[in-house]
Write a structure and sequence with these properties.
- The complex is a heterotrimer.
- Chain A is α/β, with parallel strands linked by helices.
- Chain A contains 18 helices and 36 strands.
- In chain A, the strands form 13 sheets. Chain A has a five-stranded parallel β-sheet. Chain A has a five-stranded parallel β-sheet with strand order 20-27-21-22-23. In chain A, strands 2-1-3-4 form a four-stranded parallel β-sheet, with helices on both faces.
- In chain A, helix 1 packs parallel to helix 5 (108-127), helix 5 (108-127) runs antiparallel to helix 18 and helix 6 runs parallel beside helix 16 (547-565).
- Chain A is elongated and about 95 Å long.
- Chain B is α/β, with parallel strands linked by helices.
- Chain B has two domains: 3-131, no CATH class; 149-272, no CATH class.
- Chain B has helices at 3-19, 46-49, 82-93, 149-155, 159-171, 178-182, 207-221, 230-234, 242-256; strands at residues 25-31, 38-43, 76-80, 102-106, 130-131.
- A five-stranded mixed β-sheet of chain B has the order 2-1-3-4-5.
- In chain B, helix 5 (159-171) packs across helix 7 and helix 7 (207-221) crosses helix 9.
- Chain B starts with a helix and ends in a 27-residue tail after the last helix.
- The relative contact order of chain B is 0.12.
- By secondary structure, chain C is an alpha/beta fold.
- Chain C has one domain.
- Helices cover 42% and strands 17% of the residues of chain C.
- Chain C contains four helices and four strands; from the N terminus they run βαβαβαβα.
- Chain C has a four-stranded parallel β-sheet, sandwiched between helices.
- In chain C, helix 1 (18-27) packs across helix 4.
- The termini of chain C are close together.
- In chain C, 71% of the residues are buried.
- The chains are: A alpha/beta, B alpha/beta, C alpha/beta.
- Chains in contact: A-B, A-C, B-C.
Chain lengths: 661, 283, 132
């Protein structure tokens, strides 16, 4: 006799009108393990709960079954209630006799019979329930933000403003990301640098933010509240502690190599700042192009530096840092259209450029100081063709998804061309025009009124004819072929997950969707969380979006991170997997099943059977901080050595057996 | 080469490996008092090596016997045919033995006088440190019958007939667990049947419980079964149970294409991974 | 058998999808046969095929395993393992002479109350037809 009490709720008439609660109570009393049974109008009400608490005291009840509404409704209520009694809150089972019985059946007799079965199952299960304890894990009150674009910057600032230490990690020598490359932002046409550089400076000046540029994540271990991250500080070859960023070295450097920031439209020296407003405003040496590092000759920058900052022997260093929360803001890269679209010249024509190249061309601090010219001959183009959806919405050659921002920046590009080059003509090839955003449709409308010609259809071929770049495509509204003799062609190419994002997700144990973007924990209800507890996401790394959406998402993920970091310790559910090490054979079948990488095979000390010699053997171990309690691992275990607390094998078997008493 | 010549090679090589200290002992076969049966034998010295035999009755699997010595003082030498080598791979991928503790002397097999060899697809060892003689390229497999003929014979029956077929088989099962004990992939520290507190297996000795055991065993062996047929060979009641486990392998093949367990020591089991596009006609 | 002629069906339902869907069927006052007995598990990946064997062993006339649709698992990948395990188990049961109409694995989401009702109704009818 385990002194189990069964409490049957009428739920007003919700239950009592559709089945015989008194008969259920009578039947419950007849179950051998049950020492007390009662019914009441509303078990969840104050007096209902008191009735249970009194019965526990008076009857000395050890385990509780409540037959009422769905456990998804009031399990937590009743657990809280039990905390006030002497009974552990996990020695409780709920029989769902409302949602899954009284509400769905019409035959009172059969519904009653079913309710008795459900009670019997709950009583059987609760016999095998164990007292469980909620545990608390301490939270390291520091956040790591990975990626120093506008998403990472915003998230870092928000978390830091809330009073928590933040490390903002960026693999490039400067933060700023893609937004720093842009000229103007739609639809307001405010200058991108004017709104993003103050934020970059805020980051560098914020007392709670540690900026780590030229750094990459090497490995991640731990779990929510307690991550250990190994960070590779890539060699800069310039001592930033003393460098003032005077720029003499950059002037003297004899090397000229393609500027990635200017998308290959200009050259930069081997010792360089990413762009003039870079933060930190100090140069680094690119070892791939530095003559001194490659061949030992040169050394000009070292000679010219008045402070002796240059150190050609600088090396990568690994540091380990601890964090409570991680925000992923790894952004995007543009699709390599050259390898996808042979019919567009595959990169053979210098005057076929992508959207970011155009941004650099039109930017006052860019390679042409803002004059829109053709890369091939520096002439001002009179006719420009803009092609949208290059690599996006193209299942055959590119990606199925829409890159979302291109419709608007295509309109912006058209507007800028028409404004800067008097008498110019702009043709935009499109599939659809998508302008969902505040002021977006109005901006698109304005661009058309400015004179941009929208042609609905895909460009099928781009080729060179004399001085022109010919764009040939179908105008699908008029149903005829169109040819435009252009001087410059701008391809608005698809966004893709940035380089190395798959590897980073692997280190973190985060899932990616079929297009490689980070999989959010729930597409609607948990859009800024990943499946890994304590790891949040912000910006384009989750999927293409524009700047306003990116910033909004960054603040949202910051709020999530702040919510976590505000806690001193975190409550963890005790209903997680647990290994009986003495039974575990270490076969490792459970390990690959876990979606959270919570199971590791460890070598545990033991003694050899027979000889008693000290030995080590493999056994599975569950990281309580990572386990979410799904129990999928338990099925892989043939022995049953790994089991799920709260839903143990024998608890479920008891439920089955109870159906055939 | 004749059996006698091969046996000579085996004995000499075993003696040398033991004498040279490369292995602590070698697992092979010896004669028994039955002319048509051999037994697995641990040769520990030169004299033992002379007792090793190689003939058409050298049937039992050697690999499983290594699990009795998981922390050996020296390397365990083991004679391995195709089936043994697949079992060794399995034991390695199930973390039951460590490769560096084992010295595998590969024996390309001729096919033995046993039913299970009828469907052998791998006479030659798939893992070894040395091969004692060259594989017979003329007949790489024995395969007298289709790989899944045992399973297919039962599949051909109707639902009720299949039910009755197994009812008959398991009515004769005495739950001695010989099939489990001999199986190279049954390596749990404690078998689920003995985990009474968990209670997956009822203690009652009746056909229904025997059937639960039979199906559970098949599922546990499941995607790891190397189809060696030791279960059937060890069964004192002569029950046809290899077709039960092979049913799983056959299903895996149907779902995921070519599948043969134990061909390499990698740890990827069919049930340990998934494909988002897996078939699920019934869901 | 005449005394207890109504078939009994055990349904293992994941907490996040099918159990929620079943609750929703209740909220919507949908009606379905009384024969099903739901056992709540956190994830369909928690359902050990041996539970199904136990249910049949005890006398279940039908067994169902229900969880989130592929791609919708609350634990991201649990149901993909469910799918593999039960594709094998279903065939193994059939091989052992269990009529496949007595074992069903279904994806039923938290919003598919009607699918839950229809599935339970359909399975119950099917099993009634098969007899005890």
């Amino acid at each position: 006799m385990s002194k189990t009490g069964v409490f049957i709720c009428h739920c007003g008439t919700n239950i009592a009108s559709a089945l015989d609660v008194y008969k259920v109570a009578e039947a419950a009393k007849a179950i051998p393990d049950v020492s007390y049974a009662a019914e009441y109008k509303y078990m969840c009400s104050e007096p209902g709960q008191q009735l249970i608490l009194d019965a526990i005291k008076e009857q000395g009840l050890k385990r509780i079954v409540i037959a009422a509404c769905s456990p998804r409704m009031h399990e937590i209520t009743f657990r809280k209630m039990l905390k006030k009694s002497g009974v552990n809150e996990y020695l409780l089972e709920i029989a769902n006799i409302r949602e899954q019985d009284s509400w769905v059946h019409e035959d009172t007799g059969k519904a009653t019979e079913k309710a008795i079965d459900l009670v019997r199952m709950a009583v059987a299960k609760v016999q095998k329930n164990e007292p469980l304890k909620t545990s608390f894990i301490p939270v390291t009150k520091r956040a790591l933000v990975i990626g120093g674009g506008i998403a990472g910057i915003q998230a870092a600032l928000d978390i830091a403003d809330a009073g928590h230490d933040v490390v903002l990690l960026e693999r490039e020598p400067s933060i700023g990301g893609r937004m720093a490359m842009l000229d103007k932002t739609f639809p307001t046409l405010d200058c991108s640098a004017c709104i993003s550089t103050p934020k970059m400076v805020d980051v560098s000046a914020h007392p709670n933010i540690t900026l780590m540029t030229s750094c990459e994540v090497e490995s991640v271990s731990g779990y929510i509240g307690n991550f250990k991250v190994a960070i590779r500080k890539k060699a800069k070859y310039v001592n930033h502690d003393i460098c003032t960023g005077c720029g003499l070295c950059e002037e003297k450097c004899p090397v000229k190599t393609d500027s990635a920031f200017n998308r290959g439209l200009s050259k930069r020296p081997a010792i360089y700042k990413l762009f003039p407003q870079a933060v930190p405003a100090k140069p680094v040496i690119d070892k791939e192009s530095c003559i001194k590092i490659k061949s030992g000759k040169c050394g000009l920058c070292e000679k010219i530096c008045p402070l002796g900052c240059i150190d050609y022997n600088d090396e990568d260093r690994l540091v380990e840092e601890e964090f409570g929360a991680i925000v992923l803001a790894t952004g995007y890269k543009l699709a390599e259209w050259q390898s996808m679209y042979d019919e567009y010249g595959a990169g053979r024509f210098p005057d076929v450029i992508d959207g970011l190249q155009f941004e650099r061309l039109v930017n006052a601090s860019g390679p042409t100081e803002g004059r829109i010219t053709r890369p091939s001959d520096g002439k001002e183009p009179k006719t420009v063709v803009i092609v949208k959806c290059v690599g996006s919405r193209d299942i055959k050659k590119g990606h199925p998804y829409c890159s979302r921002a291109c419709c608007m920046y295509a309109a912006k590009h058209a507007h800028q061309i028409l404004e800067k080059i008097p008498g110019s003509r702009v043709f935009i090839f499109y599939i659809d025009v998508r302008t969902p955003g505040k002021g977006y449709e109005e901006f698109y409308d304005k661009t058309r009124k400015d004179g941009a010609v929208y042609v609905r259809g895909r460009v099928s071929r781009i080729y060179k004819e004399g001085d022109h770049i010919v764009c040939q495509g179908e105008d699908s509204l008029l149903g005829r072929q169109v040819r435009v003799n252009a001087d410059l062609v701008v391809l608005e190419t698809a966004m893709e997950p940035s380089e190395g994002s798959a590897e980073l997700l692997g280190l973190l144990g985060c899932a990616k969707d079929e297009d490689g973007w980070i999989q959010e924990a729930h597409p609607k209800l948990r859009p800024v969380e990943t499946q890994v507890g304590g790891v949040f996401l912000a910006g384009v790394c989750q999927g293409p979006k524009d700047i306003p959406d990116t910033v909004a998402q960054a603040s949202a993920s910051a709020a999530k991170a702040i919510g976590l970091l505000n806690k001193d310790e975190m409550e963890t559910s005790p209903m997680i997997a647990s290994v009986a090490e003495d039974k575990c054979s270490g076969c490792g079948a459970c390990e690959p099943i876990c979606p959270y990488k919570a199971i590791t095979l460890e070598r545990i000390p033991d003694r050899e059977p027979g000889t008693g010699r000290k030995i080590e053997r493999p056994a599975a171990r569950v990281n309580a901080g990572l386990c979410q309690g799904c129990g999928a691992c338990t099925v892989a275990c043939r022995t049953g050595a790994i089991d799920l607390l709260g839903f143990r094998n024998n608890q479920i078997l008891q439920e089955v057996d109870a159906l055939w008493p | 080469m004749t059996y006698a010549e091969k046996q000579r090679l085996m004995r000499d090589r075993a003696a040398a490996l033991i004498e040279d200290g490369i292995v602590a002992y070698i697992i092979g076969w010896r004669e028994t008092r039955f002319p048509d049966k051999t037994a697995v034998f641990f040769a520990r010295d030169k004299d033992d090596a002379e007792r090793l035999v190689w003939n058409e009755y050298a049937v039992p699997l050697t690999a499983k016997y290594m699990t009795g010595d998981r922390w050996p003082d020296g390397k365990i030498g083991v004679f391995a045919r195709g089936c043994d080598s697949k079992a060794i791979n399995r034991l390695i991928s199930d973390n039951q033995i460590e490769r560096e503790n084992v010295y595998i002397i590969g024996l390309p097999c001729e096919g033995k006088s046993d039913d299970r060899c009828l469907t052998c697809r791998q006479k030659d060892p798939v893992a070894y440190d040395e091969l004692l003689w060259e594989p017979d390229s003329a007949s790489p497999t024995v395969a007298g019958r289709g790989r899944f003929f045992r399973t297919e014979e039962v599949e051909a029956l109707g639902t009720q007939e299949r039910f009755d077929y197994w009812e008959d088989v398991y009515s004769r099962c005495i739950r001695c667990y010989a099939c489990r004990n001999i199986c190279p992939v049954c390596t749990c520290r404690e078998c689920y049947v003995d985990m009474h507190r968990t209670g997956f297996q009822g203690k009652r000795q009746d056909t229904a419980e025997n059937r639960v055991f039979g199906v559970t065993r098949a599922f546990h062996v499941g995607d790891r079964c190397i189809e060696c047929g030791e279960c059937e060979r060890a069964c004192p009641m002569g029950l046809p149970i290899l077709g039960q486990t092979q049913k799983i392998i056959k299903t895996v093949e149907r779902l995921a294409g070519d599948y043969e367990s134990g061909m390499s020591p990698d740890k990827e089991n069919f049930l340990g991974k998934f494909d988002k596009d897996d078939k699920d006609a019934f869901m | 058998m005449a005394i207890d002629s109504e078939p009994k069906i055990v349904a293992f339902c994941c907490n996040w999808c099918t159990y929620t869907g079943a609750d929703l069927a209740g909220l919507n006052r949908m009606k379905y046969p009384e024969n099903v007995r739901v056992i709540r598990v956190p994830c369909s990946g928690r359902v050990n095929p041996q539970f199904i064997l136990r249910a049949f062993r005890r006398g279940a006339d039908g067994v169902m395993v229900c969880g989130c649709h592929p791609g919708d698992c609350h634990y991201s990948t649990g149901n993909y393992f469910t799918r593999r395990r039960f594709m094998l188990m279903r065939e193994l049961l059939e091989f052992n002479g269990i009529d496949p109409r007595r074992f069903h694995a279904r994806w039923i989401s938290g919003s598919e109350a009607a699918k839950f009702r229809d599935t339970v109704t359909e399975v119950t009818e099917m099993i009634r037809g098969l007899g005890k």
